[in-house]
Write a sequence for this structure.
């Protein structure tokens, strides 16, 4: 599975949201599995969108054919567009499905990892972080993906921001120490996204 993560700063919110609804045109595209997104809770002008494709071949075919016509609907409504593709490595909680209808919040964590620590980082995600997140109230499912250049994306879907708050204080510091995160990670960026139901495809 291929995971596409898009982040941008929106200058015309109304126009952007109208354009975002046009991505319903993805339905029926060969290999398309689902898409959703919303607004950053920390920086209200920042939008995040994540999409899931069966594989790179289907994705490249869509990019060559139908992408530009859909993207044109949002032209001029945003700036600082960043797009990254990640190959699926494993679930954060068993039984990942690329659907958004039961989730309120999406947590995005993007890491650049030291080359000699890549396998340790992935192992600690499986042994330390995944069980802690899977056991947290309100955590629905998640996915761990990898991109060239020792980059990793952890996406997790939550039922509500209140439930996600129970996972945060104190526990993250303890988990980081157990996992040796500081030794593994060269750069880390994260965000909490309030999902917009009308963006779900």
């Amino acid at each position: 599975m291929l995971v596409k993560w898009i982040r941008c700063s929106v200058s015309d919110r109304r126009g952007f949201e109208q354009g975002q609804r046009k991505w319903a045109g993805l339905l029926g595209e060969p290999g398309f599995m689902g898409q959703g997104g919303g607004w950053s809770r920390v920086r209200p002008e920042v939008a995040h969108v994540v999409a899931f494709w069966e594989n790179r071949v289907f994705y490249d075919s869509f990019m060559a054919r139908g992408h530009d016509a859909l993207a044109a609907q949002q032209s001029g409504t945003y700036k600082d567009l960043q797009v990254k593709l990640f190959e699926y490595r494993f679930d954060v909680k068993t039984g990942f499905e690329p659907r958004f209808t039961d989730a309120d919040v999406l947590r995005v964590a993007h890491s650049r990892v030291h080359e000699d620590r890549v396998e340790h980082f992935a192992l600690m995600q499986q042994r330390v972080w995944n069980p802690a997140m899977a056991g947290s109230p309100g955590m629905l499912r998640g996915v761990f993906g990898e991109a060239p250049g020792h980059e990793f994306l952890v996406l997790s879907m939550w039922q509500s921001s209140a439930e996600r708050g129970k996972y945060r204080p104190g526990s993250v510091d303890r988990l980081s120490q157990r996992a040796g995160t500081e030794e593994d990670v060269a750069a880390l960026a994260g965000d909490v996204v309030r999902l917009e139901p009308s963006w779900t495809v």
The helical segments are 13-21, 56-65, 67-71, 118-134, 161-165, 171-179, 181-184. Residues 113 and 185 are 4 Å apart (CA to CA).
